[in-house]
Amino acid sequence: MPDTHLLDATRLKFGIGQPVPRAEDPILLTGQGRYTDDIALPDQAWCVMVRSPYAHGVINHIVTEAARAMPGVLGIWTGADLLAAGYGPMTCAMPLKNRDGTALRTTQRHALATDKVRFVGDPLAYVVAETRAAAKDAAEAVELDIDMLPAVTQASAAAEAGAPQLYDGIAGNLVLDFHQGDSAKVATAFEAAAHVTRLSIRNNRIVVCAMEPRSAIGSFEDGRYVLRVGCQGVFGLRAQMAKDVLKVPVEQVRILTGQVGGSFGMKANAYPEYVCLLHAAKQLGRPVKWTDERTGSFLSDQHGRDHEVEAELALDAEGRFLAVRLTSFANMGAYLSTVAPLMGTANFWKNVQSNYRTPLIEVATRSYLTNTSPVSAYRGAGRPEGNYFMERLIEAAAQEMGLDAVELRRRNHIRPAEMPYAAASGSTYDGGDFTALMERALQAADVGGFTTRKAESAARGLLRGLGIGNFLECTAPPTKEQGGIRFEKDGTVTIITGTLDYGQGHWSAFAQVLHQSLGIPFQQIRLLQGDSDELVAGGGTGGSKSLMASGAAIVEASELVVEKGRAAAAWALEAAVADIEFEAHAEGGQGRFRIVGTDRGIGIMELAHRLRQAPSLPEGVPATLDVTHVFNEAPQAYPNGCHVAEVEVDPETGVVRIDRYTTVNDFGVIVNPMLVAGQARGGIAQGIGQALLEKVAFGEDGQLQTGSYLDYALPRAGDLPAFGFLSHPVPATTNPLGAKGCGEAGCAGSLPSVMNAVVDALSGLGIRHLDMPATPERVWQAIQSARAGA
Description:
With about 800 residues, this protein is an alpha+beta fold. Among the domains are: about 180 residues, Aldehyde Oxidoreductase, domain 4 (2-Layer Sandwich); about 160 residues, Aldehyde oxidase/xanthine dehydrogenase, a/b hammerhead (Aldehyde Oxidoreductase, domain 3); about 220 residues, Aldehyde oxidase/xanthine dehydrogenase, molybdopterin binding domain (Aldehyde Oxidoreductase, domain 4). The protein is about 30% helix and about 20% strand. It is built from 21 helices and 28 strands. The chain has a seven-stranded mixed β-sheet with strand order 3-5-1-12-9-10-11, sandwiched between helices. A five-stranded mixed β-sheet has the order 7-15-14-13-8, with helices on both faces. A four-stranded mixed β-sheet has the order 18-26-27-28, sandwiched between helices. A hairpin with a 5-residue loop joins strand 13 and strand 14. The longest helix is centred in the C-terminal third of the chain and has 28 residues. It starts with a helix and ends with a helix. It holds the Pfam family MoCoBD_1. Keywords: Molybdenum.
């Protein structure tokens, strides 16, 4: 159960539950942030990649002689050079099985292609020169002799007989034939159902579009590889680079990360450029820097989403859910990234049930390689999609059965009295109040006034629609995470963690937990997270688990500090250890050790100073209050909520405008409401982007047709409404803080609420479903087709 003393913190200005501004914002807003591209090391050289202009082809020759002779060029390397150096490939080692029990068929991706190119942007060589301009000139002078081959860009097309084959050893481009669920029981449920709803749903591919393009600096210092790079966790990236790629002990690799301008899953893994930089740095004996340009990012960064899904829901005559079935094609791109197969398989399975009583689930996903950029996790990584499929099925089923969609949800919600609830997906929901939360959202959104607003829109020639998006996410389970606490000589206290802030605001939230636990002044707390040399564990940031992992680690580490502090305070106060007690927030708000029943005591900060100044200490008295602690693990959590969107559609242009947007969420115990609201709004904005604007498009030859912001639309401020944000928390019982995670939930609620609203607006024309993105062109075409068929 959550530690109750952590939940009653409203009296503390910087305690849990307070909207404390982000500690890093003054640094970033005054230009003091240090992103990778801000770093310039002495004697630094520049790297530029040579990429394939073709989606598929056989490499005959890479001619570099003329480029090598150009001014300022220090070296040019190809795949043959890196293979000769003995570097290993990047692979996917996820323990997923085919339906016949055999293992996932993985790809072996070396940093540079040697036999074939498999997507536009596939790296073939790289140039290092004294300046970036010189490196770019030389890269353009590298000659490529490639025999082009036919390309395939869609997963379902890659499954067809006669489709281009990307690898000789992977028959039919199929890397995983995933199946989970009891097919016979599910089939029986569908046969016995009073009604079956079926939808074909396209989960559109997304370019991640982080604010900061990928950038890295490789160096070789004192016999060690050092990589300065934006990532999601230095501990995990060090292990991947050392063990899989560089083939050296982890002690010979150091990863350093400063500020990171967004990632959303994309910067979590090793990339080919990192190997190239480290090899060149070792060869040249000087640092080598690379910073991608935006067009390069569109080509070489891992993309998100991209599934073709047949979704089915079986219901009885009263509208109670009997079974849900997803049959999917998943596009992996040209190479398997570290987590590529997870989204359309295990995460579909865990999340499609959402917060509904659904006895049976079946997920069958066939994952195919295509001549496109590799796909990986993108905010939510399959969790928003699972909820989206269920919510679209519910809306369609309600319409087909003549039922009220809200009542259909109520009828199937899991009740608080049923908690803990053993879901068909294998998850055990520890708590939630789903119907009450939805009712609060409907009230806050003034759904009762929708009919009047719809009539007002109609008077202006516009179609108005209302969309509900219930969601429940199964977060990633918190794994081993460091919770180091170090009392510094300058009077500050450093939290050392293996998670990594790439926009979330960890510093303030973690400091609030520490302030709550030990009474250390908030302004004196610092955060160290981006140096692998400082870590003994680290799960990185991803899967909406950071606070559950690092927060729990800080709570447990604080308990160890108190344990050490009681022994130290007994020495300082000349008392027995048994007579020492600790109060986290004594008079003045700071932590204080004191002798029980007296007013004699010593503050925690003063005690740390006394220990540091002592020339010698008796046996049994700790030299410092410092703690290096590793939180073991905890079950995943289940954040949930309800989003309500209202849109207006102009039938003459197809333009969709979101007019109203309300959310009520259960994120368990909220440490910092300001940060949580910001995280939710960011996720909503990205969900709106996918729902209304964003789509990666490829030509038949595999050329990326949306390779810049001239062709690829991101949501702007004017595309977004004001977001109403309310909380209906039910504390989690599975971690010391009672937190549930919030970072990706915005996408899970916005995809279904916005698309349900769009379809509702168009339903009067007989339109039953529309795929994302609901761009003006797509909406207008749907309206014209509906009118022509009327």
